[in-house]
Write a structure and sequence with these properties.
Layout (H helix, E strand, L loop, with lengths): L4 E3 L8 H7 L4 H7 L11 E2 L6 E10 L5 H9 L5 E5 L7 E3 L1 H9 L4 E8 L2 H4 L6 E6 L10 E3 L3 E3 L2 E3 L4 E5 L2 E5 L4 H23 L6 H9 L8
Parallel strand pairs: 1-8, 3-4, 4-6, 5-6, 6-7
Antiparallel strand pairs: 2-7, 3-8, 3-11, 9-10, 11-12
Cofactor: Mg(2+); a divalent metal cation
GO molecular function, one term: metal ion binding
Pfam families: RraA-like
Length: 226
């Protein structure tokens, strides 16, 4: 086995019930209950027409500017997988464009996340298959390798293991460890319910901001009342 140029073919994927459930939960709520420590880089933005992303991670690591392993991933991915590509965040060459997205659509993947550049954004914007990327560049990729499939990758500071639950919306992308996904989603739903209650109080004019003064006092803030 050659680290850096290898392919793993089998791993356990996130539970299908968790995948379906996560599709209706905001990434911001998930992020909050994961201590705001596990999000993808802020520059990773959606380029598709619209719709949430949810599915088990199919992990790909590419040499920056090279997409050989992504081509292989499109032959291997199962329906419902989210292909997550660590391309080092480099924006000098597009890792994917319209033609490869067409193959992703035919493979029935749930979406593609690339920490790197894409191109053919007008065509991608007409698709409902979620596509997240770090930027755009018209220059095409090389196809020489090396790279890896089916091993842990990192998108910025977010570690993604194959099979982890990937969730994305207009606010960005987050990875939830498959083993704790149900617990995380429980907390995220509770967080959302609390926020909806707070919003209702705000709209009815009954918002209680006492916690703000308490936080200022606890922090030793000086208030001049003159």
């Amino acid at each position: 086995m050659s680290e850096g140029f290898r392919i793993r073919q089998h791993w356990k994927r996130a539970d299908s019930d968790d995948v379906a459930r996560a599709r209706g939960i905001a990434v911001s709520n998930i992020s909050d209950v994961m201590a705001r420590m596990n999000g993808a880089p802020a520059g990773l933005r959606p380029f598709h027409r619209g719709g949430a992303l949810s599915g088990p991670a199919f992990t790909v690591r590419c040499r920056p500017g090279d997409n050989l392993m992504l081509h292989k991933a499109l032959l291997m991915a199962q329906p419902g997988d989210v292909i997550v590509v660590d391309a080092g965040g480099a924006l000098d060459n597009a890792i994917m464009g319209e033609l490869m997205l067409a193959r992703a659509v035919q493979a029935q993947v749930a979406g593609v996340v690339i920490n790197g550049a894409i191109r053919d954004t007008a065509a991608i914007a007409e698709q409902d298959v979620p596509v997240f990327a770090a930027g755009v560049n018209h220059r095409g990729p090389y196809k020489d390798g090396p790279g890896e499939i089916g091993y842990a990758i990192s998108l910025g500071g977010m570690v993604v293991e194959p099979g982890d639950l990937i969730v994305g919306d207009d606010d960005g992308v987050i990875s939830i460890p498959a083993a704790t996904a149900r617990e995380v989603l429980d907390r995220a739903e509770a967080k959302h319910a609390a926020e909806m209650q707070q919003l209702e109080q705000t709209l009815s004019g009954n918002y209680d901001g006492a916690w703000i003064d308490a936080a200022l006092k606890a922090g030793g803030c000086s208030i001049d009342e003159q």
